Amino acid sequence: MSAAEPAEAFLGMFRTTDRLQEGENDKKLQGKCLRLVSPMSPAWLYGCYAVIIVLTVAVIALSVALSLSGEKPEQVSVKNTYAVCPRDWIGFGSKCFYFSEDTSNWTFSKEICMKQKAQLSQFDNMEELNFLRRYKGTFDYWIGLHRESPKHTWRWIDHTEYNSSVPIRGVEDYAYLSNNGISSARMYTDKRWICTNPNSYILECQIPFASF
Fold first, then answer.
1. Are residues 187 and 149 in the same domain?
2. Residue 121 domain flag
3. Same domain flag for 127 and 165
4. Does a structural domain hold residue 211?
5. Burial level of 133, CB count in 10 A (0-12/13-18/19+)?
6. Under 8 Å between Cβ of 209 and 76
7. Cβ(142)–Cβ(191) under 8 Å?
8. Within this chain, do residues 107 and 124 fall inside the same structural domain, yes or no?
9. I need a labelling partner for 105 at 20 to 30 A (CA). Which of 52, 74, 162, 207 fits?
């Protein structure tokens, strides 16, 4: 073997060692790069798991809150008043009205209404008057308006003064509903009558809101 061959062999071993060291260095560098670049480190995964858990809990809590808020309209109620009237009486607004089929004079008609814990009809506004006129049909009905004489003012059964919102026809002292509006007649004339039961049958009922 020549003197050059051991030198070449030594150089070859050195190159091989360099290559191994370079390979190991490359692997170390790759590992470092992967740890720096890769998002799949354990700490990152734990963070992701924590975020997912927090979001899941938040979604569940929100769903429960929405479901409870959706049920509230059915549970919350408001008070509404309306007339619950006896048989053969008609409710309108907060009152009950009775339209008789018999006839009598004004005084006896008043007494009949009082026996039913009511009074000869009184209207408080035009809406009620229009209802009475519409429902009475073609018959004449006594109402609770009267006066002592043509020189006195018209008053209701409870002695409150009539506001003259609708003129009363005629010169007599007892009022009734006619086809022409409100007219007057003598007390002993026989007519049908209307009783009003103001607020005696009013109930406060819990009416739930409709949910949509």
1. yes
2. yes
3. yes
4. no
5. middle
6. yes
7. yes
8. yes
9. 162
| Residues present in the chain in total | 212
Question: Six-digit token pair at 7?
Answer: 């030198």
Which residues sit opposite 99 in a β-bridge?
194
The tokens of 158 are what?
A: 């409870």
> Would you state the structure tokens that stand for residue 51, as one six-digit string?
């975020």
**Residue entry with tokens 């309306």:** 82
Q: Specify whether 10 is located in the same domain as 98.
A: no
Q: Write the CATH number for 87.
A: 3.10.100.10
Q: What's residue 45's pLDDT?
A: 61
Domains identified in the chain, total number: 3
- By DSSP bridging, strand 174-178 and strand 141-146 are antiparallel
Digit-by-digit pLDDT tens for the chain (212 residues) are 555 555 555 445 545 555 555 555 555 555 554 454 445 566 656 666 676 786 777 767 777 666 665 544 444 344 444 557 888 899 998 899 999 999 999 999 999 999 999 999 999 899 999 999 999 999 999 999 999 999 999 999 999 999 988 999 999 999 999 998 999 999 999 999 999 987 554 444 434 444 44
- Structural domain includes residue 162: yes
Contact 105, 187 (CB under 8 A): yes
Burial of residue 196, with CB atoms counted within 10 A of its CB: 0-12 exposed, 13-18 middle, 19 or more buried? buried
For residue 121, count CB atoms less than 10 angstroms from its CB and return exposed for 0-12, middle for 13-18, buried for 19 or more: buried
Tracing tokens 């480190």 back to the chain, one arrives at 41
Residue 7 structural domain: 1-38
